[in-house]
Amino acid sequence: MANTTVTAPPSTNRRLSGRLGVGSIVFMVVAAAAPLTVVGGSVPIGISIGNGAGYPAMYAVGSVVLFFFAVGFVAMTRYVPNAGAFYTYIGAGLGRLHGLGGSFLALLTYQTIQAAVYGYLGAALGGVVADDLGGPDLPWWVWAGAAIVVVGLLGYRHIDLSSKVLGVLLIAEIGIVLVVDAGVVLSGGGPEGFSTASVTPSGIAAGAPGIGLMFALAGFIGFECTAVFRDESRDPDRTIPRATYASLAIIGVFYTVSAWSVVSAWGDGGSVTEAAADPEGMVVQTARDYVGAVAGDLVQVLLLTSLFACVLSFHNVVNRYVFSMANTGVLPRTLGRSHGRHHSPHVASLLQTGASVVLIAVFAACGLDPVLQVYTWMSGVATLGFILLMLLTCVAVLVFFARNHVDTRLWNTKVAPVVGVLGLAFAAYLTATNFGLLVGGWTVGAVFLVLTVASYLVGPLVGVLNPAADPLAVARFEAELDHPVEVPQQVRPTPVPEDHA
């Protein structure tokens, strides 16, 4: 996250240009996808409550759907200044009120992702301390609360993990998963050999494929970050599309193969049984069985670091969103205060930390299981929000190019976006109609669906009450945080004072 002090003095620094190639951008996007969090967290859940042994195919299906989305998305990036977040594109294509709706939907999406990860992290950390280290056997919410405090302190003081540390951890994550995949393949699979369920219609359609697709799409959250690096890439008109498609292909193949390896290791029936019985330990045990005890321990440690890095990253993303939205009049201006000493969005961080504490406290009071309920339910809400944001963006692409004839390529501006809209609309339909099954009943499911829709409707309401609220102004302000001299003076918001406490 960039320095968030809004009163930074003029500088001779300019936007980076001509530095990043396809490989560099792909690496950063894959890092944002938190590969071990997906393989160790989402894959067992997708197998357990999704379409069972056919679940690996959902990553391939998701890749295809997102490819059509990406074609129009990438085509629009060159015409939307300071673009990055989905709400920027929604605002540019569908108008100010819809863009504001997208910004609030994004806040809900990223907050629920954090709640999901906190639940899983609490369970995983508690298991390691009690079972492997011989420490106290405390409730999951104690460890989740400890993680919230640590993340909150780092966010308050504007401390992020070093990119070099994240790079090393990412390489280790991918490396250990590939080693486990190789171990399963070289062993000829499990007791039933290699699984074929994910390539047969009956296997793919088994169970609840809608829930399976939902968890598969969750693994792609962050792939759109390629657009953020447009100003910093060499020949962006070529680099950004190539990086986007390469990221999709790499993430899709990696998750498909890894999920298939996990299923093959346990067998079609055994994988469903194991995923339901021990979702947080399934991949760890797979590593121990097919590679060795050391590999299992590495997976366990790297899963914890992956979960922590993931939740810290989203904490900082939401801090930035709230800070920028407050400084442009979308949210109360108090939330836009920056700390005088730490130069951090400390009020936004405190708000977000408090929200996480409340959510975990409610989940604990209700006696929810941290993995099968907290992680599963919150991941479902976040994924639905992610799908809806992409759907709105895809519609915005169609409207934008229909109104502004700046790109006449039929495939990029009409055909692919239309297919993307249809695919994402179907994914949203499957997710929404399976929500009752996901949460064990339509009473709770309806509450989450209403909450998701309501978060979007808050945006237009704010826009009507405050005509000055504009998602494109938020994007310009975010650009000012990174590149203060590049933002035209006439769009600079009046900075909110710093706090020195």
Automatic annotation (TrEMBL):
<keyword id="KW-1133">Transmembrane helix</keyword>
<feature type="transmembrane region" description="Helical">
    <location>
        <begin position="20"/>
        <end position="45"/>
    </location>
</feature>
<feature type="transmembrane region" description="Helical">
    <location>
        <begin position="377"/>
        <end position="402"/>
    </location>
</feature>
<feature type="transmembrane region" description="Helical">
    <location>
        <begin position="86"/>
        <end position="108"/>
    </location>
</feature>
<feature type="transmembrane region" description="Helical">
    <location>
        <begin position="57"/>
        <end position="80"/>
    </location>
</feature>
<feature type="transmembrane region" description="Helical">
    <location>
        <begin position="202"/>
        <end position="223"/>
    </location>
</feature>
<keyword id="KW-0812">Transmembrane</keyword>
<feature type="transmembrane region" description="Helical">
    <location>
        <begin position="438"/>
        <end position="458"/>
    </location>
</feature>
<protein>
    <submittedName>
        <fullName>Amino acid/polyamine/organocation transporter (APC superfamily)</fullName>
    </submittedName>
</protein>
<feature type="transmembrane region" description="Helical">
    <location>
        <begin position="168"/>
        <end position="190"/>
    </location>
</feature>
<feature type="transmembrane region" description="Helical">
    <location>
        <begin position="243"/>
        <end position="263"/>
    </location>
</feature>
<feature type="transmembrane region" description="Helical">
    <location>
        <begin position="347"/>
        <end position="365"/>
    </location>
</feature>
<dbReference type="Pfam" id="PF13520">
    <property type="entry name" value="AA_permease_2"/>
</dbReference>
<keyword id="KW-1003">Cell membrane</keyword>
<dbReference type="InterPro" id="IPR050367">
    <property type="entry name" value="APC_superfamily"/>
</dbReference>
<dbReference type="GO" id="GO:0022857">
    <property type="term" value="F:transmembrane transporter activity"/>
</dbReference>
<dbReference type="GO" id="GO:0005886">
    <property type="term" value="C:plasma membrane"/>
</dbReference>
<feature type="transmembrane region" description="Helical">
    <location>
        <begin position="298"/>
        <end position="318"/>
    </location>
</feature>
<dbReference type="InterPro" id="IPR002293">
    <property type="entry name" value="AA/rel_permease1"/>
</dbReference>
<feature type="transmembrane region" description="Helical">
    <location>
        <begin position="140"/>
        <end position="156"/>
    </location>
</feature>
<keyword id="KW-0472">Membrane</keyword>
<feature type="transmembrane region" description="Helical">
    <location>
        <begin position="414"/>
        <end position="432"/>
    </location>
</feature>
